[in-house]
Amino acid sequence: MKQSDDNRFIPMTSIHSGQGVEVAEDVYYFTNQIVNIVMLGKPGGRWILIDAGMPKRGAEILEAAEARFGKDNPPACIVLTHGHFDHVGGLVYLLEHWSVPVYAHPEEFPFLNGTRDYPEPDPGVQGGVLAKISSIYPHEATNVAEALQGLPADGSVPDAPDWRWLPTPGHSPGHVSFFRAGDGILISGDAVITVRQDEMYKVLIQKKEVNGPPRYLTTDWPAAKASVQLLNGLEPRVLIPGHGQSMSGTELREELNKLSTNFEELAVPDHGKYVPGKGGNPPLTFLLLFLLLFCSCATWKPGSGGQDRLGRKTFVIIGASSGFGRGVAEELGRLKANVVLASRREAPLREVADTIKKYGGNALVVPMDISKPEDITRLQETAVSTFKTIHVWINMAGVGSIGRSGKSLLQSRQPL
Ligand SMILES: [Zn+2]
């Protein structure tokens, strides 16, 4: 059993990370960084787990499960909406603690038994900063073949008799959703989500809006559309998506209906290599703030592939003189990236620049004050004149203490 070779900590989170919501007595979802996992069953009783969260975060899921169902009460099984990295990230860790079967749609098996990698995410797809950096997302196959079983062909869900699974391909070939007709609860995985998953700012604050699947990983848009129409036809009363907060009632009905009716306009990107007749990668352009890199350097260790993907890119880091910003900058230097270092204090930036150059990366030091718009313009111009373009723009300003919440970043406006 083995997580994918490129399984690595992904340094991003939302303000709801670490929080759980009880949608019904026996339906609970828990946000793991930026993805939701669902636990079906009454507290303390027999239960099943849907999806397995972000890479390297299995321990948090285990902790949340034990808090709700008790120690030594593993789920009867784990069921997967699909096998993308952010839904199976903790899977091998959990299976090392729980010897239970894992159910998925057979179309998803190659990605879960180590035989096939997902297509690479498309960083050129139309969308926000999280789409642009999607080339760092793991896409290689996980191998849990020993535990893997097909979902029952009759649509039933093992150990959850009220529930049915439905095929909702498009985002991935064997993507499935789960529905309970009795109270209209829909668990949609990534077929429908309630946040613009490719936009960092919206992910961070979890701005609520019904959306089609995350753009950078979706490979079959016509199938994705049919899946949204199928889900809309169920007239769900409550939606628990793979990303974003749950939604219910009239708001859900209206938003889902709107997405289903105007899918091309609202969900399908204008360009991208997986968009029919709309291929091609546009140049990466100037990106907005709020890429929150929680670089835990002990866990984020891109392999040689990471160096290829990141090495030729230019990163601007505001707040690079200390703490997380400095850690991220030095890590990028190790990947031989172009790193533009900005902060009010020049001397420590020079030290960081020396470290980056020692690793083989390029560094440019720009002393500036983030509270002055003219300084931000000057930073952008200096970076572009030196490295021609900026691929990723990281604002670490004011990030002093980061817990599980991203609020500190949003609330901090003090100059560096
Ligand atoms: Zn996905």
Description:
The protein is built from 14 helices and 16 strands. The protein is an alpha/beta fold and 416 residues long. The protein folds into two domains: 20-266, Ribonuclease Z/Hydroxyacylglutathione hydrolase-like (Metallo-beta-lactamase, Chain A); 304-411, 3-Layer(aba) Sandwich (Rossmann fold), CATH 3.40.50.720. The strands form three sheets. A seven-stranded mixed β-sheet has the order 1-2-3-4-5-6-7, with helices on one face. Strands 8-9-10-11-12 form a five-stranded mixed β-sheet. A four-stranded parallel β-sheet has the order 15-14-13-16, sandwiched between helices. Strand 2 (27-32) and strand 3 form a beta hairpin. The radius of gyration is 21 Å and the shape is globular. The structure holds zinc ion. Zinc ion binds at residues 82, 84, 87, 171, 190, 214, 217.
